[in-house]
């Protein structure tokens, strides 16, 4: 094995989260030998949901690096300057960057990083006396530590799984092939951002003119993402550090209560939707072929001829309703998943009572292997680090936290000034010091 195949850190996957670690590791600060393996030849960010008029829920300064290394050459601003569109970007006064532009930024970063191997899927990871052995499409590597960044898996309700196909699909597949909704009855299930993006595109005829378009949500209404200042304090290192120290049941309660801070629909998308509905059905007077059904939980799906019948239960009355559909799209989110290539090590990872990985403060998974070899996991700690964990907001800080831990020193300065909110109880001693 050549020296370049012996690594301090091997990354499985190079989606934005591991890519952020790769981008920060590509500096003189850590001096770590790293390599991140990405199975896609041409990295596109969630290609199955790359739809027209879809935007980031997060500010563009929360890119791969800026929060901890604003002088990095892998920032979104560097991308703009290198593409000679810095001034036009400013003139466009974009509230949020389009997903297409952010995806292009990620691809630009991935292609220029020498520690990212594109088109090289990880096939197997094993542990022997000298550390991890990683077999990829292109060769064998040895690594001291791993970073798991293979993302989440689309989640469908059990009753829909058996009928999964080209007309009963998860939102994450919608843009993968050409689709034709012309003359069809289309039902979208799920009241989050993906449901909204799909409903709006269907309403605008992106896949042809549907005969009927119904949008079903378990939520009480089509609810906005809370992007206000104090709510955004949940997306700070200070809050996240304190959160990690809370008991499991307290963390679960807080995450549930904070749902709309991370899982609502952007106010801009809601406004576009409302205006589109108003224009078509109130101004132009089209017969009302598109309708919204909040407060309904989808509970069953069955075949009916060439189509489906979706059954819902009303959240206020308990009434059951039945929707005939030719196409049902489930925008029902994603669930945690460890990749098959890790099968040998998976049973050695500790799980909590809910089956989630047990993560330490530096995102290291608890396992029964030697302490000299750690397995870090990104996008796997909503239960341990809070609602920011599956989001882009803190990825640069998390990446620096992991790299500092591996480097064994503060390669990145993560110290902060005191914030305005006291999240934790103040001991009497601290009160005395504060006065
Ligand atoms: C449509 C959509 C929009 C989102 N928008 C936002 C937003 O605006 N703001 C926000 O904060 N968050 C957003 N999120 C949440 C989150 O930021 C993203 O899901 C983000 O992509 C998570 O990054 P990741 O690196 O963990 O996983 P992924 O992006 O899923 O990347 C995982 C990568 O691992 C690769 N891989 C898998 N298995 C292997 C293997 N065996 N070998 C090699 N490579 C492998 C995959 O090809 C993939 O590229 C969004 C999520 C979705 C689905």
What is the helix tally?
A: 14
* Rg, Cα atoms, Å: 23 Å
Largest sheet: 7 strands, mixed
Query: How far is the first residue's CA from the last residue's CA?
Result: 61 Å
Q: How many structural domains?
A: 2
Bound molecules: flavin-adenine dinucleotide
The CATH architecture of the largest domain is 3-Layer(bba) Sandwich
What overall form do the CA principal axes indicate? globular
Number of strands: 17
CATH topology of the largest domain: FAD/NAD(P)-binding domain
Uncertain residue ranges: none
Q: Assign the CATH superfamily of the largest domain.
A: FAD/NAD(P)-binding domain
Report the structural category: alpha/beta
Strand content: 15-25%
According to CATH, what is the class of the largest domain?
Alpha Beta
Helicity level: 25-40%
Describe it for me?
The chain has 435 residues and is of the alpha/beta class. It contains 14 helices and 17 strands. It has helices spanning 16-25, 76-82, 86-92, 99-112, 158-161, 193-203, 229-232, 237-244, 248-257, 259-262, 267-283, 382-385, 395-407, 428-434; strands at residues 6-12, 34-38, 116-118, 122-128, 131-136, 140-148, 153-154, 168-170, 185-189, 212-216, 290-293, 296-304, 307-314, 320-325, 327-330, 334-335, 375-377. Strands 1, 2, 3, 4, 5, 6 and 17 form a 7-stranded mixed sheet that branches. Strands 8-15-9-10-11 form a 5-stranded parallel sheet, covered by helices on one side. A 3-stranded antiparallel sheet has the order 12-13-14, with no helix packed on it. The longest helix has 17 residues, at 267-283. The protein is globular, with a radius of gyration of 23 Å. The chain starts with 5 loop residues before the first strand and ends with a helix. The mean pLDDT is 95. Flavin-adenine dinucleotide binds next to helix 1 and strand 2.
